[in-house]
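Recall the central idea of this unit: under ordinary conditions, the amino acid sequence of a chain determines the structure it adopts. In this exercise we apply that idea directly, starting from the sequence alone.
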Amino acid sequence: MNQSQICPRFEQAISLLGQRWTGLIIYKLLSGSQRFCTLESGIKGISGRVLSERLKDLEGKGIVKRDVFPETPVRIEYSLTEKGHALEPILRETEKWAQTWLEAATE
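Accordingly, the structure predicted from this sequence is:
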């Protein structure tokens, strides 16, 4: 396909989901609200700085919601918005494709 024929919105979507860690963050949040430390420990290899950057970016795009609970100490949880949950079928199909076509990682 010629580059000029690619829909700009499709290109934006692929760029967003193709950004390192973004898909994994969204995938982790499909199971419900999570605290920063839970996300960080659940995504092997991500640094706190990068996770913070990605969450801010996703929040700015309306995909992730940040809830602050006025407790002592303050509790912050991240969850998907309706826009974020709309990505679930895409991520589930990617997961099925990976199970069928990719070899398991050896560590």
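The first strand starts at residue 34 and ends at 35.
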